[in-house]
Structures are given as structure tokens and as C-alpha cells.
Amino acid sequence: GAGVSQTPSNKVTEKGKYVELRCDPISGHTALYWYRQSLGQGPEFLIYFQGTGAADDSGLPNDRFFAVRPEGSVSTLKIQRTERGDSAVYLCASSPGQGNIQYFGAGTRLSVL
Amino acid sequence: RKEVEQDPGPFNVPEGATVAFNCTYSNSASQSFFWYRQDCRKEPKLLMSVYSSGNEDGRFTAQLNRASQYISLLIRDSKLSDSATYLCVVTFNSGNTGKLIFGQGTTLQVKP
Known about the structure:
The complex is a heterodimer.
Chain A: E1 5-7, E2 10-13, E3 19-24, E4 31-37, E5 44-50, E6 53-56, E7 65-68, E8 75-79, E9 88-95, E10 103-104, E11 108-112
Parallel strand pairs in A: 2-11
Antiparallel strand pairs in A: 1-3, 3-8, 4-5, 4-9, 5-6, 7-8, 9-10, 9-11
Chain B: E1 4-6, E2 11-14, E3 19-25, E4 32-38, E5 44-50, E6 55-57, E7 60-65, E8 70-75, E9 84-91, E10 101-102, E11 106-111
Parallel strand pairs in B: 2-11
Antiparallel strand pairs in B: 1-3, 3-8, 4-5, 4-9, 6-7, 7-8, 9-10, 9-11
């Protein structure tokens, strides 16, 4: 069956621009997570959705980062006024519910020039 | 101090060798423990869960020592295909988020 799908796979943007990253979870998975992985590091938690609501956004680094999941399926991570330090791989994972195994998408590699 | 610490390596071993990775975690409230495998430029994939009693899956053995807050992964008879980064992961049941806390990862390179 289809896994977690993330688009685009690569995104190059200029400092100060706005970007949107999309995650399409496994069908029926209610839990959705965003992580960010910088070069040479493990993934770091950003935000968790249970259904449509952000149940935990404690990992978002600042108010330039925002995520939505309006219908409880697809999620969009939005980054305003991008900075070079935002360059990383943004990973999305979904799970049948909190506490279950998380399945990761291939990620979006964001490069801010 | 990071919540989950690993030696980043790299560990360079010949085929057939036995190699062990260690990981320590700082939060005693940690409840669940995992090893994930990540190939170069790919997503992390669950390798195995880790239980206090220890568990084995083929050539892979994982151990958890709650008293020392220490997790290990042993790989026997290494194969070229084992070359990857191995991520130690913990999670907490309190707060009910299930978010994963990753270590930096340990890189393994198995050579012919």
C-alpha cells in the first residue's frame, strides 16, 4: 500500500521567502508528526497532530513556523521569512494513533540560499 | 546535555565482524525505546524495539538497562548491507504525544 508521501522532494528558495511543505499520511492514520533533520544529526521533533488539532507544537523553533491539518489527513508545514539556518530535511511521519509505530516519508530537502 | 547521546562513529568493520553500539538517555521517565536504521539520504525505518528483557531479531540483539539508562545494539556477522546510520530513539508516555526523541546516530561502514 501507499506509504507517507511528501512533496516536493527538494525545495530551493532564497532567504526571506515563504515555503510550504506537504505531507500525505498513510490512509487512516490519525497521528501525524513533523521532524527536522540537520546534516549529521538525528531528527528533531517539531509538531504533532492528532486528527485536525495540533496536540503538541513544542518543537517549533519560532513563530515563523506553522503547520496545519485542516481535514485530519494532509498536513502542510509553512515557513515564513526563511533563513539559511532553516536548511534541513523536513520529515513527516504518521501512525495509527499516539504510541504506535511511526512510518516516515522520504522527506523534503529544503535549501535556503 | 542532549536527551539521547550516541557515539557518532564512524565504525569501520570488516564483513563478518561483530559490532556493538551504545546509547544513553537522560530522562528517567523515558518509557519506550527503539533502534531505527537510516540509509544515506533516506528516511529512518524502525529496526527493532528494545525491551528490558532484551530481544533478538536474527543477527541483531538489543538490550535495555533502565537503572543505568543505557541501550545497546549488537550486530553479529556484519554484512555489507548493514552499512547505515543507526539511530537510538526514546519516547515518553506522559503527555500522550508519542513524539520520538532521536540520538545523533552512529554510522556503520562494513567493508569487504
